[in-house]
């Protein structure tokens, strides 16, 4: 687990340092926009972006909610909810993963397995509110998201 975290941290730092703007006379927003385009970040997490992963089964629920660089985790009310700030390197990598998503296609990605349909697995969904639009995945088995969102979901769960 520590090796994975270190790898994500190093990758995030590499992405941050390798994507710089060359224009000196640009405003901060223009620099960020140019940097996002240069680095391939078509979508970036804004302070109003909300990401929610929900796991549900009989008598159990777990939510992971990200808004801006804040993460909130709640599990069946058994343990008090935890709230914390995502580190800069993890947030950079989260932005990298987020930028690779085709948000409008998320609802069309099929679940790789369907055990949740007969109580064989917990139901998990990914929901994203970004730039005023709402995107929700189809329900899938906990721990087995569609391949197109798998890296993104697994990284969030590792935070």
Automatic annotation (TrEMBL):
Q: Where is the signal peptide?
A: 1-21
In its UniProt entry, the species of origin is given as Flavobacterium jumunjinense
PROSITE patterns membership: PROKAR_LIPOPROTEIN
- Name of the featured protein: Lipoprotein
From the broadest rank down, the organism's phylogenetic lineage runs:
Bacteria, Pseudomonadati, Bacteroidota, Flavobacteriia, Flavobacteriales
Which keywords are on file for this protein?
Answer: Signal
């Amino acid at each position: 687990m520590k090796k994975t975290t270190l790898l994500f941290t190093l990758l995030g730092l590499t992405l941050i340092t390798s994507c710089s703007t060359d224009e000196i006379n640009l405003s901060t927003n223009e620099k960020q926009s140019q940097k996002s385009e240069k680095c391939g970040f078509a979508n970036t997490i804004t302070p109003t972006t909300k990401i929610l992963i929900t796991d549900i089964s009989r008598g159990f629920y777990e939510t992971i909610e990200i808004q801006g660089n804040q993460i909130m985790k709640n599990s069946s009310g058994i343990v008090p909810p935890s709230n914390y700030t995502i580190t800069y390197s993890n947030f950079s990598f989260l932005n990298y993963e987020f930028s690779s998503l085709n948000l409008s296609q998320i609802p069309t990605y099929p679940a790789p397995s369907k055990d949740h349909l007969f109580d064989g697995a917990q139901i998990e969904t990914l929901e994203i509110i970004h730039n005023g639009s709402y995107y929700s995945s189809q329900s899938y088995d906990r721990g087995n998201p569609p391949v197109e969102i798998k890296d993104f979901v697994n990284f969030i769960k590792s935070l």
